[in-house]
Amino acid sequence: MNWNIEELGYLPEKATGLGNKFLIGNGYMGIRGTLEESKKDQFPAVNLSGIYDQVGNGWREPLNAPNGLYTRFLIEGKEYCLSGKEYKAHTMELDYRHGIFRRETVFETAKGKVILKTERFVSMVDKHLIALKVTLIPSFDGEVEIMTGIDGEVWDINGPHYDSVATGVTGELICAVGTTHEKQDKVAVYEALDIPYKTGLI
């Protein structure tokens, strides 16, 4: 039996449906199958179960958390993303037996080809954990930057559900804490980095 779902190429009008198709989760939370560089208008969402909010006369709905997987990719100071014209190939894949989402995108830069690979999963052991692995493979010597953080611009249907999102640093972690509109509940997201090669980091 083939446990993999695959999507080749990129069509912006399919992004919403692919977010649903490639969603992964553990029953406590899940993340839509959008890409790491996706902003609010491309509907990324970390879905949470058991916590709801209502704004005005809209229906009460489950909350989305601030996106702790938001990541940008820069080559020689220029940002590359799938919505740009420089990508040459793109594949999304979901191993739904093991709950692993993968993407591979090939970009053509002024200096040569760069391959971007990512993998992510939502842990069944620690229900609060989403893990993301990012690999950039350039075909040339040059400056490559991976910029990651927590996106506090949360997409929702009947929101906004956070009256405020406060950001900060705790030890080696960055954090974002949202305060809900209806009951003033707190939703906290923390991000930690594990960088195997530290040469050239500032």
Question: Summarize this, please?
Answer:
The chain has 202 residues and is mainly beta. It has one helix spanning 15-21; strands spanning 4-8, 24-25, 29-31, 46-53, 61-65, 67-75, 78-80, 87-95, 100-108, 113-122, 130-138, 144-151, 162-170, 173-180, 186-191.
Largest sheet descriptor: 5 strands, antiparallel
Indicate the low-confidence ranges by residue numbers.
none
Helix content: under 10%
Strand order of the largest sheet: 1-8-9-10-11
* Element pattern in H and E: EHEEEEEEEEEEEEEE
Q: Please report the distance between the alpha carbons of the first and last residues.
A: 47 Å
CATH topology: Beta-galactosidase, Chain A, domain 5
Overall radius of gyration: 18 Å
Number of helical stretches of at least 4 residues:
1
DSSP strand (E) fraction? over 45%
Shape: globular
Structural class: mainly beta
Highest CATH level, the class: Mainly Beta
Kindly give the count of domains. Answer: 1
CATH architecture: Distorted Sandwich
Structural overview:
The protein has one helix at 15-21; strands spanning 4-8, 24-25, 29-31, 46-53, 61-65, 67-75, 78-80, 87-95, 100-108, 113-122, 130-138, 144-151, 162-170, 173-180, 186-191. By secondary structure, the chain is mostly beta strands. It has one domain: Glycoside hydrolase, family 65, N-terminal domain (Beta-galactosidase, Chain A, domain 5, Distorted Sandwich), CATH 2.70.98. Strands 1-8-9-10-11 form a five-stranded antiparallel β-sheet, with no helix packed on it. The chain has a four-stranded antiparallel β-sheet with strand order 2-3-4-5, with no helix packed on it. β9 and β10 form a beta hairpin. The longest helix is centred in the N-terminal third of the chain and has 7 residues, at 15-21. It starts with a strand and ends in an 11-residue tail after the last strand.
